[in-house]
Amino acid sequence: MAGRATSAQPFNLDGATFQKYAIRAFGLSIVAVVLWRVITVGLAEGYPASFWISQALNGLVLGGVYALVALGYTLVYGILFMINFAHGEVMMIGGIAGFFALQFAQARGWMEGPWLVVVVALFFIMLVGMAASVLIGVTLERLAYRPLRQAPRLVPLISAIGASLFLQYSVLLIFGVSPHSYRKPELISGGLRLGNVFIPYTGAIIFFTSILLMLVLFFIIQRTKLGRAMRAVAEDRATASLMGVDVNAVIVLTFMLGSALAGAAGVMLGFHNTVVKFNSGFIPGLKAFTAAVLGGIGNIPGAMFGALLLGLIEAIGPSALGIPTEYKDVIAFTLLVLILIFRPSGLFGEVLSEKKA
Q: Does residue 101 sit in helix, strand or coil?
């Protein structure tokens, strides 16, 4: 029986396939260069293990702050499919309000009283900061975003940038350019020392509070009536409205949740860094956006993971690469560019409805 002739299929490399492989090769080359630099610097510097542990703990503290702000970004994006670039200023206003609440508590001697009184005073300061942020967040939604819901996607983005600048310079004109200094009460002014590693109390509070608030938020989204309504509005606003969901109320509550988390972050960052001023929320806000993109915009666990990972990279990166710590912002925003190039959906993937995607 005569065998059938076979012919080899030519390898067809179209433009899209070539671009995909070129991007992958470029990404692998970047990873290789970074690993070579880290190994070279690590061998040359010989930092002790306690140094890396301290840097990692600092990174987790930064990541906790970024996480609380990133959760607000991801909530609003999941519902409205827009980036609220004024969210960092919402955090800053929470910190400013917390400062004045701290002044009020100090004037009445609450911060020098028994430990239970100090704890209650700290909760009071936190609630004041969160309330101020909620008020600003809801006002932004009503005045800057609600009239633009049906506008092209670029229009609310420009409105958010304008709102960010408006809030910054309003605080500058009202409260001045000088930073407002938080004074820590004795209860949280120290820290734990484990060998050569020092863990400040404020850092531990930020990290564990951010984890707790993320779990509470995740429970609200997945297990409550409000969470079901939020998921329905995120899936399809028109259909949710026909099914009896008050879309405006759900969106307002979404802004309230995100703003409350940002206000808590502003107060805790004020106690940790001891200062807050008119532009204190700008860079953390951009980095929280980077964290949300890194984890997957619209994804709550992804935003949390992305924020902690970004904090670790920012804290460890300059020492690992052998560059000055002033370049940590360059590392963070370079990471944003790389994520947008190589994995625009983030590490965990975006959580969007098919209609929005």
A: helix
Q: Is residue 59 part of a domain?
A: no
Q: What is the pLDDT of residues 210-265, one digit of tens each?
A: 889 888 988 998 889 998 999 899 888 888 888 889 999 999 999 999 999 999 99
Structural domain span for residue 211: 65-278
pTM confidence score: 0.87
DSSP string across 146-192 = GGGTTS-THHHHHHHHHHHHHHHHHHHHHH-SSPEEP---GGGS-EE
- Helix or strand or coil: residue 193? strand
Residue 294 CA to residue 348 CA, distance in Å, equals 8
Instruction: Please tell me whether residue 348 adopts helix, strand or coil conformation.
Output: coil
The domain total for the chain is 1
DSSP code of 110?
G
Does residue 296 belong to any structural domain of this protein?
A: no
- Does residue 209 lie in a domain region? yes
Task: Dump pLDDT digits (tens) for 259-276.
Answer: 999 999 999 999 998 899
3-state helix, strand, coil split of the chain in percent (to 5) is 75, 5, 20
| Side chain identity, residue 304 | M
CB 134 within 8 A of CB 263: yes
283 part of a folded domain: no
Q: Could you tell me if 335 and 294 are in contact, meaning their C-beta atoms sit under 8 angstroms apart?
A: yes
Contacts 24+ apart (CB under 8 A), 20-29: 23/341, 23/342, 27/338, 27/341, 27/342
CA distance 148 to 181: 38
What tokens were used for 186? 């004795």
Q: Which of 258, 309, 312, 232 is nearest to 55 (CA)?
A: 312
